[in-house]
Design brief:
The chain is mainly beta. The protein is 5% helix and 43% strand.
């Protein structure tokens, strides 16, 4: 996902947890990010799912937009995948351990499986979806 520069200056469309049937706790982040390698201005929708969640922390206020300032980090540490959104760490680079993420992260999930879906140049009007209606790409 290097073409998205850690989704810097992107937008968090949603971040939350769900229980797939059958399955264990999962977390889904839905983001809108600029593709920096595209020849023209292009923003893509990125869906990241962490399955079989071991740890989850969300310290954000709801019902407000959240633009991504320090990036979305996808890391594999101690045989767990970590999805960290906008964490501010001691080092400029990605966090180095699960303990560091737990100490400094405000929005993260760690789990055993990772899935990433990219919908190129997708402009979805999320405000016009009615309850129970889903967009085929999401």
């Amino acid at each position: 996902m290097t073409e998205y520069h850690n989704l810097d200056d992107g937008l968090v469309l949603s971040f939350g947890f769900f229980y797939p049937i059958p399955g264990k706790l999962s977390v889904q982040g839905l983001f809108y990010a600029k593709n920096h390698l595209a020849f023209e201005e292009r923003w893509d929708t990125i869906k990241i799912i962490i399955e079989d969640v071991v740890d989850l922390k969300i310290l954000w206020k709801g019902n407000q937009a959240h633009s991504i300032c320090t990036g979305v980090h996808l890391l594999k540490l101690d045989n767990l995948w970590c999805l960290d959104v906008d964490g501010v760490y001691e080092d400029i680079d990605d966090p180095k351990s699960i303990a560091e993420i737990q100490s400094f992260g405000d929005c993260y999930a760690t789990g055993k499986q990772l899935k990433i879906f990219i919908i190129p140049d997708c402009r979805i009007d999320l405000n016009n979806l009615t309850p129970g209606q889903e967009h085929p790409y999401l």
